[in-house]
Amino acid sequence: MLTQFEERINAGEVIEPKDRMPERYRKQLIRMMSQHAHSEIVGMLPEGNWITRAPSLRRKMTLLAKVQDEAGHGLYIYSSTETLGVSRAELVDQLLYGGAKYSSIFNYPTLTWADMGVIGWFVDGAAIVNQTMLAKCSYGPYARAMIRICKEENFHKKQGYEIIATLSAGTPEQKAMAQDAVNRWWWPALMMFGPPDTESPNSAELMKWKIKLKSNDELRQRFVDLTVPQAQAVNLTLPDPDLKFNEETQHWEFGKINWDEFWQVIKGNGPMNAERLKARRDAHEKGAWVRQAAAEYARKHNPELINS
Ligand code: FAQ
To answer: Which residue CA neighbors atom 40 of ligand 1 most closely?
Structure first.
């Protein structure tokens, strides 16, 4: 027999923080939402690396604004996770010292300016495909955060694609730089959607509760279908000799993903895992005085806002 909670989920009702919910639902949301928030924060590092080296003032301003938006996304998602009874400090601690996961994609290095274009195009593009579905998920605070985030990610994707279109139409060296970035980021972008459905331990439960509305493989396929024509439009080649359009299914078929690489990266053995975590730990530790000063200021001027 269905529980009252399952009936609400099946009827498409939105669950709010003070509603009754099974402990597993709460735990799964904390796991997934906190990983997502961590990804937004760690995700600032690969692009932050290029702010001082952007090729013009316009590009610098846009990149700066984009990286700042990612910080905002992290904060919205940490705040929505806090509605489930866990504090942001605890979650940040899990990222910095507790081995919490964040997206595999941010463990690859950003070697050239073209990487800024490809990150906007592929990484924000993949995030939009994934998050447009999450914007309809059963947990209200997460779904609402996703609506705003997706709007901002659309700008990010456009700025990235415009960088790539410009480079691709530029000198032969610029075009080669764009192609090289596409070659390096394509497969890691496909891995962002998670393991194949047959090896995804969380999917069944998440789909039952309408946290996930589409599976990892369905979303990955949608991303490929959307991105192949975009690559063709800017005269770049996706690094997959097996890519071909299937007239019957109306989908682009693609080659085998290197899942060993994926599992290695999420276990902490990717090219940049150690450096990313060190950068976050250093920033957190060096920023301790700012948190302390802000807390002191608040204690003095807004004591009612301070719990302790
Ligand atoms: N990386 O059972 P499943 C962005 C883990 S935001 C690392 O399939 P699930 C914006 C998974 O956690 C990008 N770990 O898991 C931006 C699980 O481990 P656990 C982040 C991964 O939850 C742009 C295990 O593997 N977006 O890019 C990955 O059902 C530019 C088994 O996997 C989100 O987080 C991975 N790629 O599905 C920022 C969206 N895939 O916890 C800056 C929300 C899987 O059991 C610059 N999250 N794992 O130990 C989701 O949609 C889902 O959590 C999935 C994974 C689809 C990521």
So the answer is: 194
